[in-house]
Amino acid sequence: MSDSKTNGSKRDRLTKQGSWLTSINEKGEYVRKASVFRSWITDDGSSPFPAEPGRYHLYVSHACPWAHRTLITRALLGLEDVVSVDVVDWYLGEGGWRFKPDVAGATADSVNGASFLKEVYLKADPEYSRNITVPVLWDKKAGTVVSNESAEIIRMLHALRPFSSSAEKGARDLYPEDLREQVDELNEFVYHNVNNGVYRCGFARSQEAYEKAFDGLFEALDVLEERLGKSRFLFGNRLTEADIRLFTTLVRFDPVYVQHFKTNLRRLVDYPNLWGFTKDVFQLPGVASTVNLTHIKHHYCVSHTSINPLGIVPKGPAIDFAAAHDRDRLGPIEGL
Fold first, then answer.
1. pLDDT tens string 129-167
2. Quick count: other Cβ atoms within 10 Å of Cβ 76?
3. Residues labelled as active-site residues
């Protein structure tokens, strides 16, 4: 077999493995696959990826809640001029995530000149044959992927805080040492039942799998609704990564998940505390500009042809994340 045929076969496999349909188990349940690139940026020389301004680059999708975490963290830590960003098109088709600068809100690949994100993965590892996902943290100097695990990227961005646009933002800590054990525990609960729970509803291939995920999702939302009735954020009045991780699912809930993923027991706006919390986070300086509802709605409704074969995108709902909220009654925000 020639090199050209080998490369073509590899690209074909990447295209197929980029589909969520490869993550369905024998019970019809959606099981998210683990990320592969798991290196770290460090500020103490303990990894090949030192903390340097201008060295790192994010590949993201505005549609993806996992990638959205990294954009919010980058903004809150004042790293817009430290970590550059390219945005893929909202449409996820046969070739995987693609760069289409003629689509509003999307960009070209300014670093590697790729047409598809899979080309970036193959540049980092010519033998790569797993899922092509966003976000991707790229090292421009070493020419490779540092990480494609969003939960770890939002933490390692803290190593770049000395280069923040302001001392105030650079002093922020979204994963404070005194709360780490509690944050980790809550993150696991939210991830399984809410972040991934909506996907487990929408991607379920059996009634049993759907109902199991559905019940777990709304039981978890009830728990979180009660918790947020007592404090402004998930851990008192201190914003942490746990709030960001929850927010990126909630901001998509009514515009997409209620109808597209059939998570329709209640809407976000039916939960006074969760709805107020979502508006509160959305209105933090730098967050609103990371939310692109056009990319979000079109991605899910057009890309997921097995769920929405005609690709019709709903015009509603009418929802105003910039509307007034009453979260101030729970006290001022601490640490921002």
1. 889 999 999 999 999 999 999 999 999 999 999 999 999
2. 23
3. 64, 199
